[in-house]
């Protein structure tokens, strides 16, 4: 059986990390696509030279030609520009919307059967626009944000509780940004919900509130520290977990930006909700019971995404 083919549209900081992870995990052959001259081929060659040491078999190719993504099983999109200190994710909308148009047309022409994971910010609007431009079915186009945001949340919780990250699960819903909604009731250490852990004296509500706030601004904290660019190790690792669930039909349950058709009272919008990812792409949307506070937070998130889409439609009359 031929190897899977993973196309990375955007071979920058996240794209290069995606390529390294996908190749080292032998998920398939990897195509790095970028408009930058030479860089994708340089990264492909450099990674290929890591293979004998690490011991993985994967073909890697850099390209500027969309024809080279033909037949990709998975396409992961990071093309665009990242934030600089002081910028919000929404500030990227004008530039990155144009990029999504070019990428969507490339996917439509050369990889219409791929499972597409969008990472480019502002994520909730870019994944919606990418789906519109590509014309793929909604269950085959998702956005990566919730896995990253919940990973950040899980890291902070594991640090606070002094337990293995392996036993910490966390739930974040809603948009990727300050409006995200971490759900404490569904976050656990080995199945013990966080509110119970607080009652058991493992932490305090104040410390949990501070961790929620730090999770919400987790991206900005790294942008500030790096000085140029944004996070890329955890974003890439998160998207790879989603791609693996698709390629191996693992049916994992992840918080992702997915197309809603009435779930959570939302119609024809991409927003972060729990979904199951399997060989069909979005195998199903998981509707969890939200308490009043989570419902209110989720609605704020939905409204913020809707505003971004209004801005997108104003910028591109084809949307
Ligand atoms: O959780 C999330 N979804 C976010 C997403 C987490 C972190 C970063 N987030 C966003 O991902 C970030 O705000 C950016 O919008 C993307 C990519 O971030 P990255 O750090 O990888 O940016 P780079 O290193 O600048 O890489 C972007 C590449 C770069 O090599 C450009 O030459 C290329 O995109 N690019 C293009 N490729 C193809 N086609 C077009 N038109 C194009 N324009 C730029």
From TrEMBL:
<keyword id="KW-0816">Tricarboxylic acid cycle</keyword>
<feature type="domain" description="Lactate/malate dehydrogenase N-terminal">
    <location>
        <begin position="5"/>
        <end position="143"/>
    </location>
</feature>
<dbReference type="InterPro" id="IPR011275">
    <property type="entry name" value="Malate_DH_type3"/>
</dbReference>
<feature type="binding site">
    <location>
        <position position="83"/>
    </location>
    <ligand>
        <name>substrate</name>
    </ligand>
</feature>
<dbReference type="InterPro" id="IPR001557">
    <property type="entry name" value="L-lactate/malate_DH"/>
</dbReference>
<dbReference type="InterPro" id="IPR036291">
    <property type="entry name" value="NAD(P)-bd_dom_sf"/>
</dbReference>
<protein>
    <recommendedName>
        <fullName>Malate dehydrogenase</fullName>
        <ecNumber>1.1.1.37</ecNumber>
    </recommendedName>
</protein>
<feature type="binding site">
    <location>
        <position position="121"/>
    </location>
    <ligand>
        <name>substrate</name>
    </ligand>
</feature>
<comment type="similarity">
    <text>Belongs to the LDH/MDH superfamily. MDH type 3 family.</text>
</comment>
<dbReference type="InterPro" id="IPR022383">
    <property type="entry name" value="Lactate/malate_DH_C"/>
</dbReference>
<dbReference type="GO" id="GO:0006089">
    <property type="term" value="P:lactate metabolic process"/>
</dbReference>
<dbReference type="GO" id="GO:0004459">
    <property type="term" value="F:L-lactate dehydrogenase (NAD+) activity"/>
</dbReference>
<dbReference type="Pfam" id="PF02866">
    <property type="entry name" value="Ldh_1_C"/>
</dbReference>
<comment type="function">
    <text>Catalyzes the reversible oxidation of malate to oxaloacetate.</text>
</comment>
<keyword id="KW-0560">Oxidoreductase</keyword>
<dbReference type="GO" id="GO:0006099">
    <property type="term" value="P:tricarboxylic acid cycle"/>
</dbReference>
<feature type="binding site">
    <location>
        <begin position="10"/>
        <end position="15"/>
    </location>
    <ligand>
        <name>NAD(+)</name>
    </ligand>
</feature>
<keyword id="KW-0520">NAD</keyword>
<feature type="binding site">
    <location>
        <position position="96"/>
    </location>
    <ligand>
        <name>NAD(+)</name>
    </ligand>
</feature>
<feature type="binding site">
    <location>
        <position position="152"/>
    </location>
    <ligand>
        <name>substrate</name>
    </ligand>
</feature>
<dbReference type="GO" id="GO:0030060">
    <property type="term" value="F:L-malate dehydrogenase (NAD+) activity"/>
</dbReference>
<dbReference type="Pfam" id="PF00056">
    <property type="entry name" value="Ldh_1_N"/>
</dbReference>
<feature type="domain" description="Lactate/malate dehydrogenase C-terminal">
    <location>
        <begin position="148"/>
        <end position="307"/>
    </location>
</feature>
<feature type="binding site">
    <location>
        <begin position="119"/>
        <end position="121"/>
    </location>
    <ligand>
        <name>NAD(+)</name>
    </ligand>
</feature>
<dbReference type="InterPro" id="IPR001236">
    <property type="entry name" value="Lactate/malate_DH_N"/>
</dbReference>
<feature type="binding site">
    <location>
        <position position="89"/>
    </location>
    <ligand>
        <name>substrate</name>
    </ligand>
</feature>
<feature type="binding site">
    <location>
        <position position="34"/>
    </location>
    <ligand>
        <name>NAD(+)</name>
    </ligand>
</feature>
<dbReference type="InterPro" id="IPR015955">
    <property type="entry name" value="Lactate_DH/Glyco_Ohase_4_C"/>
</dbReference>
<feature type="active site" description="Proton acceptor">
    <location>
        <position position="176"/>
    </location>
</feature>
